[in-house]
Amino acid sequence: MSDEIELISDGTGVAVLGHPGAVERFLTAHGLYAESRTLALPGAALGAASDVLTLGATVAENSGRWVKMTKESARLLAEHTPMKGSTPGTFRGVIRNDNGITDLLEFFRPGSPFANPAMLAGIGGVMAQLAMQQSMAEITDYLEAIDKKVDDVLRAQKDAVLADMIGVDLMIDEAMAIRDEVGGVSEVTWSKIQDSAGTIARTQAYALRRLDGLVEKLAETTKVGDLARIARDVETEGQEWLAVLAHCCRLADGLAVLELDRVLDALPEELDRHRLALRTARRRRLDLIDQTLDRLAGRMAEAADRANQRVLLHPGSAPAVVESGERVRGELAAFRDGLGLSGEWESLAARRWLDAAGDVRDRALETGAEGLGVARRIGVETLGRTRAVTGGIAERARRRRGPTEDERPVG
Fold it and tell me: What are the Basic and acidic residues biased-composition ranges (predicted)?
């Protein structure tokens, strides 16, 4: 039995290949076995390789497991410094042990069964599928956690695109069930779902527009009472559209899993290029969603700031705006976690009415002495001007009346 372990990473996950016992001991030693998944070595890749019988027999003696790229698995790769692989977007290395696993890393041996280009391409494709299936499971967990029935949200809308989305959901789930049963995606199965990408994209665009509409409402509203009402709308309606977006991402990942199976069967030599293209498309899709989340979180922060500035005049509505904003940002953070996105926002804090009143009092005390001096100066100057004006008016009145008895000359 060989104790040699081979690693392959594509940036989203790590494949550990070798004898089943050695693979299990290695992952257990690094605390990763429980979260790993079986990596079925692709039969189509064997069919595309030369010397199929020899290679197939060698591979049959080995097994593979896959773990998602996390801090722990990334640390594992950092410890062993995997080398860049010949397959685009992959890294690889070999760990040998003598009476136990060591941290020695080397290049693939020329005779390694996994060094075959067709085999490497197949493993890369399977790793991409496992990563997307893991993402689908995490999105499902997110949707269950927020207890949002996506079908109910879609049925409540009159838009035809959203109605079509329900059908796409059913067809992709059916195709995944067939794939699990027969081990691949036939031309017949693919023909049922190949037009689904357009419906998924249109639904995603619709949900993003609805979220952007909430962003615009927040930006256009200035009255605190109206802000409180709109913030409540964002809190409820926003989570519904986040659920729709998450479902779109889940279906897009499912379609990509099926698409890679189809490419592996029909055009195995194009598998690597197609895998990388799908990864790029997925990254762009998530970036577009993340930009909308940032805009919404930013507008909620601005609304909370405006409300805090007016808490003295609106002691009830202003804190409500901040509280809704904090809940919305919590929903956005949960969505990010569910989709494996990074980044976070600072918490929002409602300004207490007593704190605001205290600030006003403190500012009044700070400016009180100077204000009193100014008032005195203004009072003196005003009194002087008043006396001058009064004297002038009285003098003109006397001239109009003529001299009085006391003012007439004697003699």
Answer: 402-411
